[in-house]
């Protein structure tokens, strides 16, 4: 059976970790050679770390790799297991839906207010816009995972 995949999120996570590594390496070299450092590295690194976190969590969702205690699921009869999977999926959808909704509202407010980032003075919404996008992708992956678990396509770790 082919493992489910989240190719877009894997690509985003790979790019984020690559760019973080290059920025950090460049900053270390510049600091070593000149005694100074690049001002933008911390702001970009924090932003990319958030992208990496959300993208990685989305991949884990799609692959059924998030930590949970399966003891109760395995102990329940089939109907009870289905109800528990629906409950778990519903809770995930609610939480991710709220993050997506409020993240989009916050991004829109930052765009309207014209807020700038403290380090480089870039528009704050450039950074915040990724929150609703990535949490929306996680929401999609949550729905896919719940569907696949209900159909018995994803095996739990024993």
From TrEMBL:
Species of origin: Halomonas fontilapidosi
Function: Part of the tripartite ATP-independent periplasmic (TRAP) transport system.
A Pfam match: DctQ
A GO-annotated cellular component: plasma membrane
Family: Belongs to the TRAP transporter small permease family.
InterPro entries, sorted: DctQ, TRAP_DctQ
Boundaries of every Tripartite ATP-independent periplasmic transporters DctQ component domain copy: 21-151
Keywords, alphabetical: Cell inner membrane, Cell membrane, Membrane, Transmembrane, Transmembrane helix, Transport
UniProt subcellular location: Cell inner membrane
Molecular-function GO term, any one: transmembrane transporter activity
Self-association and partners: The complex comprises the extracytoplasmic solute receptor protein and the two transmembrane proteins.
Gene Ontology BP term (one): C4-dicarboxylate transport
Residue spans crossing the bilayer: 12-32, 44-62, 83-104, 124-143
Topology within the bilayer: Multi-pass membrane protein
PANTHER family: 2,3-DIKETO-L-GULONATE TRAP TRANSPORTER SMALL PERMEASE PROTEIN YIAM, TRAP TRANSPORTER SMALL PERMEASE PROTEIN
Listed name of the protein: TRAP transporter small permease protein
